[in-house]
Amino acid sequence: MKLGVFMSDFRTGSDIIDRLNAEKLGIIFVGNGIYHATVKENGKTSNVLDKSATFYALTEDLESRGFSSANLDSRVKPVTYSDVVDLIFNDYEKIIWI
Amino acid sequence: MATKRLGFIVRSLPYKTEASRLAMTHAIASQTVEIYLEDGDMVEPVVCFIGDGVLNCLKSQQAMKHYGITSLEQHVKNGLLLDLKIMICKEDIEKLGIKEDSLIMDAEDIGGETKAQIVPYSEIQKEMDSVDHLLFC
């Protein structure tokens, strides 16, 4: 299964991410999920980024919160709304939102 | 003559919920209630950002561009313009790796003279102890 996961929270959802298995897993940080890709808590990056997955962060939500693509963890690719639509239609068979 | 002190303690992240926005707008609006009070009575709000709430204070928020709504950055600046006491928890910005130059510390660009304060949590606790009413959101 090619699974795309929209992650929109900072403090919840990591436990579910840990349990997800997919042949191809994409995690798209949107809304408050972008803090996983930008903030280092006590100097450590989010555990979510340790998952074997392809990571994306929506630039609109980054910029709205005072970040830019330059603040992103190197494992995360910035994407626009248009790119996200392409991911949904071209890259992932199933999409979930947590 | 009496002064009612109101404490707005913001621990929520911006935008996904309205919590931090409501705290800021209520703190700003609370000064207008003075027109309904007895002569000499006053309301003095203080806004404190703690925990993840400190992320409301980051500069360069582009909420108007992307969401079509005013940013929390603008609300913080408006608060400073109106001489609101705004405190940001020192331990929490350090925990999240946020530098002072990333934070909205003043509203000089819109004519404000008051500055935000980065303070240890113990100072915020003192504010919570001293206010008459407390909104924790």
UniProtKB/TrEMBL annotation, chain A:
GO terms for cellular component: cytoplasm. It comes from the Bacteria. GO terms for biological process: tRNA wobble position uridine thiolation. Coiled coil: none annotated. This is Sulfurtransferase complex subunit TusB. It comes from Dissulfurispira thermophila.
TrEMBL record, chain B:
This is Uncharacterized protein. It comes from the Bacteria. Gene3D superfamilies: DsrEFH-like. It holds the Pfam family DsrE. It comes from Dissulfurispira thermophila. InterPro entries: DsrEFH-like, Sulphur_relay_DsrE/F-like.
